[in-house]
Write a structure and sequence with these properties.
single chain; about 525 residues; alpha+beta; FAD/NAD(P)-binding domain; Alpha-Beta Plaits; Glutaredoxin; 3 domains
């Protein structure tokens, strides 16, 4: 075997997965067909629960340094409807980190290299075949073709994933009837003035408002996520007139084409400024038939595509955190039988929920001039003025509403562990997120007699951390490496069952049922 795991694709999902596998002691090889990292700002930030998970890995500080904004937001769009999150008390329901994708990839690549991951740029997968003991890959590199043998292959290689296609995994779904051109422009002159006012008069069109501006021919949005740069989006129906009849995704766009699209939709000249990056895309809603196929796995855009709402990076990077420790457990030989299958179960369910809310956002934003669409937006806006629907939608968008069934009953199970303030025996203050830096399971003992004795047979793979915390929701928490609470209680009675369920047989087990009988 040449390597434990081959990751195909060095985007944010693939690079974060490489970090996770290295933390678990595996030897991943990342294959990336591009010779250099892309400088295209395809995404502009992260939002939701992934922010808390990056904090657990100690990556949040590195990624947020120099960011225009990082933290809770008082308002966030649900399609064309703003969610007034400032009306919700308690823990912030939605946090964001503004960071363009090229910087995100560069920083994650640096972290993966620090941990010892091997990243091969300019190396393209051509074919692969799996058998009972591994996967054989044919790769075309800068020095010619070669073969690579791995225990597992993970496709983090995007919407047109060769890994998914060669594994024969279906990718059903739909493509949006509209094409979207997106451009980043330096905000100088008239374009800068356009951004500085909440509402602007465009000669020949009228008032251009924040958010999507609907016309009979399409929609236009102008916003800004970075100082000195504004983002323009133009949506119009695909067809011969728009030059997008074939639904090309990711096609190159000239400034003249972008300006002509703006004229078609607005019927007026939109000041754009100096172009930095422009592209054409067609939104799609797709979910792979399965995320696990023997020794081939999918994550990120290779596994799911969302039609709205900026969910792709959040979901893909959360895939990586969910998968990393489970795949490492399988390679190292202590994984329970269904552990890797739980990656498919958990992350497909999460992707399905993300598809639900992004499809709803796309529907709210489509056919904006019809009376039916206007009525739908008005009704949903009314509902979101009430606290419970508002909180529900905020949790749905953040990913916090997706929780595993809790076989052991405690309401914390299946949620991301609360970031409790801790006092350790050494006297040094701490918090839960700081315990998760090494990506190992943690059993947090906040004062439960007999907990150490119950957990001792799993001491090779679970870290026991004694501490105190004011008013904890439970006096013992078993936290998976991906930050989810696997078990919570005030007594150790059901702890052995939870440990065996998630982390395999104990050191003292001689057969699969020995510890259970004990």
């Amino acid at each position: 075997m040449d390597t434990d795991v081959v990751i195909v694709g060095a985007g944010p999902t693939g690079l974060l997965l490489a970090c996770e596998l290295r933390l678990a002691g595996l030897r991943p090889v990342v294959l990336e067909r591009r010779p250099e990292p892309s400088e295209l700002p395809k995404a502009n930030g992260l939002g939701g629960q992934i922010i808390r998970l990056l904090d657990q890995r100690g990556l949040l500080g590195r990624l947020s340094e120099g960011s225009p904004y990082s933290g809770p937001v008082p308002r966030y769009p649900f399609g064309p409807i703003p969610l007034e999150l400032s009306r919700l008390g308690g823990e912030p329901p939605f946090e964001v980190l503004v960071i363009q994708q090229p910087r995100l990839e560069r920083l994650l690549g640096e972290r993966a290299a620090e941990l010892g991951a091997e990243i091969r740029r300019g190396h393209e997968l051509t074919t692969m075949a799996q058998d009972e003991s591994g996967v054989t890959l044919a790769v075309r590199g800068p020095d010619g073709p070669y073969r690579l043998r791995a225990g597992y292959v993970v496709g983090c290689d995007g919407a047109r994933s060769p890994v998914r296609e060669q594994a024969g995994i279906g990718f059903p779904g739909t493509a949006d009837p509209d094409a979207v051109r997106i451009g980043h422009f330096r905000s100088e002159g008239a374009a800068g003035a356009l951004l500085e006012a909440p509402e602007v008069e465009v000669p020949g069109f009228g008032r251009l408002e924040p958010g999507w501006n609907h016309t009979p021919r399409g929609r236009v949005i102008v916003t800004s996520l970075h100082p000195g740069v504004h983002v323009v989006g133009i949506r119009e129906r695909r067809g011969p007139e728009s030059g997008t009849e074939d639904g090309v995704d990711g096609g190159a766009v000239s400034l003249a084409e972008f300006q002509e699209a703006a004229r078609r939709v607005l019927g007026a000249e939109l000041p754009l400024g100096e172009p930095i990056w422009m592209s054409r895309t067609v939104a799609q809603a797709r979910l792979a038939d399965r995320f696990v196929d023997g020794r081939v796995l999918l994550a990120g855009d290779a596994a799911h595509l969302f039609p709205a709402g900026g969910s792709a990076l959040n979901a893909g990077m959360t895939d990586a955190l969910n998968l990393g420790w489970k795949l490492a457990a399988r390679v190292r030989g202590w994984a329970p039988p269904d552990l890797l299958g739980s990656y498919d179960t958990e992350r497909r369910a999460a992707a399905a929920r993300a598809l639900l809310h992004t499809r709803a956002q796309a529907a709210l934003d489509r056919d904006g001039d019809s009376e039916e669409s206007a009525a739908l937006r008005e009704l949903v806006t009314e509902l979101l003025r009430f606290e419970e629907p508002l909180r529900h939608v905020a949790e749905l968008m953040s990913g916090a509403d997706v929780r595993r069934p809790a076989p052991h009953g405690h309401p914390l199970v299946g949620r991301i562990a609360p970031d409790l303030p801790l006092k350790r025996p050494s006297g040094e203050p701490s918090r839960v997120a700081e315990l998760m830096r090494t990506a190992r399971p943690v059993l947090l003992d906040l004062g439960v007699p007999g907990l150490r004795e119950a957990a001792d047979p799993w001491r090779d793979r679970v870290d026991l951390v004694p501490a105190t915390s004011p008013s904890p929701p439970a006096h013992a928490l078993l936290i998976r490496p991906d930050g989810q609470v696997a078990w919570a209680a005030d007594t150790p009675d059901t702890l052995p069952q939870a440990l065996q369920h998630w982390f395999g047989q104990s050191l003292t087990s001689t057969n699969p049922t020995a510890h259970h009988r004990a």
